[in-house]
Amino acid sequence: MNELSLHILDICQNSIKANASLIQIIITEDTIKNTYIIEIHDNGFGMNEKTLSEVADPFFTTRTTRSVGMGVSLFKMAAEMAGGTFNITSKVNQGTSVIAQFEHNHIDRAPLGSIEDTLAILLMNEAAIDIYYKHICNHKEYVLDTREIKNVLNGIPLADYDVIMWVKNNIKEGITTIHKEEAR
């Protein structure tokens, strides 16, 4: 995968399969510490210790349709190739957390890509899921919380075309704004 947002999509799809009702995605860019951290937390059914110990193995999967599960192992490899680390913690019936850390300016760190498209795909396909997205760039932050949006929409579905377009534009503008403000 040549964009980090595709790794995020893959991990979130795992969260959805684990019956998560809330997925939290936090991206922290710290140019002073030279770190780029992606955290994904869910409240799904979690994993037992045996599954957790095997989840980064590319030949392990819980799927019955194929015998490989490359998503987690590719995300781990992407972080480690960019001078970073990768960690998964999980508790049965409580949820799972994935934290991938990259060197911010490492030549092998993939770009984030279109996170707005990633979140739109999740919202269009999983209306029951709530997503909390926070993007931090040094001292500035942008937050999108679908629980707040649902309250404002008063019954209009998140998957509505106009809502999805607003969400995508809001995310793109929010991230662009914090980067511009941080560059001043």
TrEMBL record:
EC number from the UniProt entry? 2.7.13.3
The Histidine kinase domain sits at 1-106
Q: Which GO terms describe its molecular function?
A: ATP binding; protein histidine kinase activity
UniProt keywords (A-Z) are: ATP-binding, Kinase, Nucleotide-binding, Phosphoprotein, Transferase, Two-component regulatory system
Report whether Transmembrane helix shows up as a keyword of the record.
Answer: no
> Can you say what this protein is called?
histidine kinase
Matching InterPro entries: HATPase_C_sf, HATPase_dom, His_kinase_dom, Sig_transdc_His_kin-like_C
GO annotation terms (biological process): phosphorelay signal transduction system
Query: Top-level EC class, please?
Result: transferase
Q: Name one Pfam family in it.
A: HATPase_c
Instruction: Say yes or no: keyword Transmembrane present.
Output: no
Q: Which SMART domains match?
A: HATPase_c (SM00387)
Tell me what reaction this enzyme catalyses. ATP + protein L-histidine = ADP + protein N-phospho-L-histidine
